[in-house]
């Protein structure tokens, strides 16, 4: 009986530990008390939102965590955009109506009902526990959620996890909505493409507006990861490997190997030195590794 009780305690401890390993993808100073990142300031948009690789129609491995994807509609290819002053639909479905959110990522319309060529956003996730959006609309909306485990996949070849239809399977009706449970979607095909966004490894999400005549408006996002992004400890430790970061420059107590990675885990800079400037790097989040210590830094 004692053995069984001990095993039960171990199971509970493991469960608690597993639940504890959950981290917000975005920096604490940028999210609200509930962990939501709102697109209501230019500073947050500049820090987290950028463009995909538009030449190759893929995720930009050196880009931001959230990447805008143009609508694949000739000849204009309407662009998705982010605007901290843009006011979305209110609870009544009217632009700037009661309860409307200020600060928006706007996804352009598709060429036809449920056509998967409207504007989109791609998420570069180092791991994923859950994904939620706050959205608004002036009428019934449809969308598609796609994913890939390969950063080199073109958006047209992403696997479909869920496609919303018109009628009773719509994404939402007019108003303001929290879109949750996205991490549980899967294509139910029973093959190697049958997976969800939940992952302890890097995974890439692609959300498309498939609605004709109506833009999809995204005001906030909440992403929880299974590990602190890239396994980072927020506080560096004392000693020779302590990492200092000031004015976009990495400084060490003594000469050592410095490796700098982007959020996709790609090595983008390396040197054996006491200092390394990141001044010429694109603005965004990077991972600095020195010996056994790592630190997340923001190039501004």
Q: Rg, please?
A: 21 Å
End-to-end separation:
59 Å
**Fraction in beta strands:** 35-45%
Uncertain stretches of 5 or more adjacent residues = 1-20, 229-238
Q: Kindly state the number of beta strands.
A: 18
* CATH architecture tag of the largest domain: Sandwich
**What would you call the structural class?**
mainly beta
Q: What best-fitting shape do the alpha-carbon axes yield?
A: globular
What fold name stands as the CATH topology of the largest domain? Jelly Rolls
- Count of the separate structural domains: 2
The CATH superfamily of the largest domain appears as Galactose-binding domain-like
In DSSP terms (H or I, runs of 4 or more residues), the helix count works out at 2
The percent of residues in helical segments reads under 10%
Assembly state of the chains shown: single chain
Question: At the first level of CATH, what is the class of the largest domain?
Answer: Mainly Beta
The H-and-E topology, N to C, reads as: HEEHEEEEEEEEEEEEEEEE
> Largest beta sheet, briefly?
7 strands, antiparallel
